[in-house]
Amino acid sequence: MAQALNRALRDALTEDPAVHLLGEDIGALGGVFRVTDGLAAEFGEERCTDTPLAEAGILGTATGMAMYGLRPVVEMQFDAFAYPAFEQLVSHVARMRNRTRGTLPMPLTVRIPYGGGIGGVEHHSDSSETYYMATPGLHVVAPATVADAYGLLRQAIASDDPVVFLEPKRLYWSKGEPAAEVPPLGRAVVVRPGADATLITYGPAVPVCLAAADAARSAGYDLGVVDLRGLVPFDDATVCSEVRRTGRAVVVHEAAGFAGPGAEIAARVTERCFHYLRAPVLRVTGFDIPYPPPLLEQHHLPDADRVLAAVSRLQWDLV
Predict the structure, then answer these.
(1) Is pTM, for the whole model, over 0.90?
(2) Residues tagged active-site
(3) What SUPFAM superfamilies does the record tag this protein with (predicted)?
(4) For FRET with 208, which of 59, 77, 92, 117 sits at 20 to 30 Å CA-CA?
């Protein structure tokens, strides 16, 4: 996946001189996860720029660049490092197009490595997607496959709206095949059809749900998996079509459960599928705590066993 993201950035830089990369250590080092490896040598420091350790300044600079017609791609080194730039994102990036009645587009992509599973310490493993999806004016994307990592990043950079592009750190080393085309931003995909219940997920929880669906066969459950591929725009049509067909749903994500993405998803599904549901929509999430130390993170992150435990509570004894 890291290589696919690197290729997406290289291709965007090659095809469009308006594309510029900014971030901490993205130049000579190639980024802490080497996603920008070799790009500064190939395109020069003016287009792949190492910045000071000042996230608000990085995003503020990128906002001005976007207003003047460039297409900046910002890397926030880790998920929780993005918080100092949150004011810029909410007050300016998300509002600029609306504030100017469409006169000024905001073609700005904010890449954020996010989530746990790599043994990272505090401020290195947060799942912050709730903040971004609750901010009107932002698109929020979270790929789970190599093909989507490349295709969705290209789409994000080409968009005239600001995109928060969440890259699941523990999937950086996952492998897969590239694709000539991927569905557009805001389109969910059914990665595994099922007859009994639907698992709704995105990003790093997609492999977890696929593993749970495999394990569920021995218990007699045929589980489908929907990869949202992003949270804003939300693909109600695909999600609800699957839930109406199976009548049962579980939402799975790493972010905390209270007021998390699963709460919004469960509400949308319940509102739109109420008369089709045979059980309440359940959630399997991270716990409502600050991210734990590395030796404890395996207890915090949703796994296949927790998903299967939720599936077993979907009121199978009711007709």
Answers:
(1) yes
(2) 124
(3) Thiamin diphosphate-binding fold (THDP-binding), TK C-terminal domain-like
(4) 77
In angstroms, rounded to a whole number, what is the distance separating the alpha carbons of residues 37 and 201? 30
Q: From residue 202, give the alpha-carbon distance in Å to each of 14, 151, 187, 194, 228.
A: 30, 16, 12, 17, 5
CA distance 125 to 127: 7
ω into 52 cis (within 30 of 0): no
DSSP label at 291? Answer: P
273-294: average pLDDT = 97
Q: Crossing angle, helix 146-158 and helix 2-15, to 10 degrees? A: 30
Strand-pair partners of 113: 167
Tell me the Ramachandran region of residue 64: left when phi exceeds 0, alpha when psi lies from -120 to 50, beta otherwise.
Answer: alpha
3-class DSSP assignment, residue 131: helix
Smallest Cα–Cα separation from 200: which of 132, 146, 272, 150?
Answer: 272
